[in-house]
């Protein structure tokens, strides 16, 4: 069961989408209201949604026909890094391209007990499905990072799964790891969506297939696939470090790292279309625009 937000006649609606892709409007104002109501009633979000569905008709529309919004206005988005071997190797490549021999940072963090976790975005910097992600004006090597996103409650429990794009500047990070915040955080450098899959409906989060496609001028330019089974760390290991001595705001999203890296000669350009699909969640589509648009 997935939860979406969309616009209907100028107002925001919450809806549930079942595995047959039928859409049911929900009475709650947003995803967190659904979680709170379930908690208050001593039931689960799925049971609450099923109860609503029981007494309502499905909408006469397909998800593709709706004007989708970001499924949660996450107050903060954090991200884990170097959680897949592929990411470690890519970071080593960008950091050692004739500049700084920093490979040990990435090798060390891949094997360390403490994971890499960094601040990625705020609601105002995050775009939703169909939205425009923006390029930085001072980078010539930019890529999307397709990642599984964990939607967390204030205690750090995983209440849902979504898809995230951790837009990244490989040249800025490669020049000096201390530039990480600039390589990761700027206007519209993060996207989330199209849906949140209720955590209780995911049998095994370590077997989700991730596919990423980038189209340029209508032609497929890059394709990559991965599986969350390749994750080096457990999801709870990441959430445990995020909440440690931290104040977590309800609805925070934690991105879990990328395993899909485009070929080294590739950089995103204005007009590109990025599609990230994760099995059971959906496909997050975004359009790339140059800085200042
Ligand atoms: O070390 C920098 C960040 C890596 C990252 O974002 C990832 O592995 O997804
Ligand atoms: Mg990343």
TrEMBL record:
One of its GO terms (molecular function) is hydrolase activity. The keyword Metal-binding applies. Residues 90-289 form the Fumarylacetoacetase-like C-terminal domain. Pfam families: FAA_hydrolase. Keywords: Hydrolase, Metal-binding. Belongs to the FAH family. This is Fumarylacetoacetate hydrolase family protein. It comes from Paenibacillus violae.
């Amino acid at each position: 069961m997935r939860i979406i937000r969309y616009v209907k006649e100028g107002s925001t609606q919450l809806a549930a989408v079942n595995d047959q892709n039928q859409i049911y409007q929900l009475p709650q104002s947003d995803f967190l209201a659904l979680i709170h109501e379930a908690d208050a009633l001593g039931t689960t979000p799925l049971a609450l949604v099923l109860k609503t569905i029981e007494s309502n008709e499905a909408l006469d529309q397909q998800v593709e026909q709706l004007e989708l919004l970001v499924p949660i206005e996450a107050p903060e988005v954090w991200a884990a890094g170097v959680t897949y071997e592929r990411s470690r190797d890519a970071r080593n490549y960008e950091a050692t391209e004739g500049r700084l021999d920093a490979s040990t940072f990435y090798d060390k963090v891949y094997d360390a007990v403490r994971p890499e976790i960094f601040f990625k975005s705020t609601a105002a910097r995050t775009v939703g499905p169909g939205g425009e992600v923006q390029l930085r004006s001072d980078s010539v090597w930019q890529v999307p990072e397709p990642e599984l996103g964990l939607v967390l409650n204030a205690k750090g429990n995983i209440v849902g799964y979504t898809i995230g794009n951790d837009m990244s500047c490989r040249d800025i990070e490669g020049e000096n790891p201390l530039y990480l915040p600039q390589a990761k955080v700027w206007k519209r450098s993060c996207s989330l969506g199209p849906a949140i899959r209720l955590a209780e409906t995911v049998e095994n989060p370590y077997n989700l297939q991730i596919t990423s496609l980038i189209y340029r001028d209508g032609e497929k330019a890059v394709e990559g696939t991965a599986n969350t089974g390749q994750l080096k760390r457990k999801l709870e290991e990441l959430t445990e470090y995020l909440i440690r001595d931290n104040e977590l705001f309800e609805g925070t999203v934690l991105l879990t790292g990328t395993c899909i890296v485009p070929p080294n000669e590739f950089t995103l350009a204005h007009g590109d279309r990025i599609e990230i699909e994760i099995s059971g969640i959906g496909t997050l589509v975004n359009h790339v625009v140059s800085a200042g648009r």
